[in-house]
Amino acid sequence: MYRNNIGNTIEPNINYMSGFGLVQNNGYTISYYIEEYVNTLKTLGAPETISGRLLSQEEATSLGCSESDNWCSPVDDSNNPTNGTAASWVYSTSYWLGSAHDSSRVWGVYSDGYFWNSDFGFGSYKGVRPVIEIPTSELNDRKIVYTVNIGNEITIGSAIPSSITQYNSPKSAVNAFNGRILLKHIVENDVVTESYVGFYKNGNMYYLRGTGATYNTSTSEYNQDSIYYESNKQTLINAFGNICNENNNRYSCNSGGFTVFAYKNGEVSVYNSDNCIVERSGISHCHFFELQ
Question: pTM above 0.85?
Answer without folding.
Answer: no
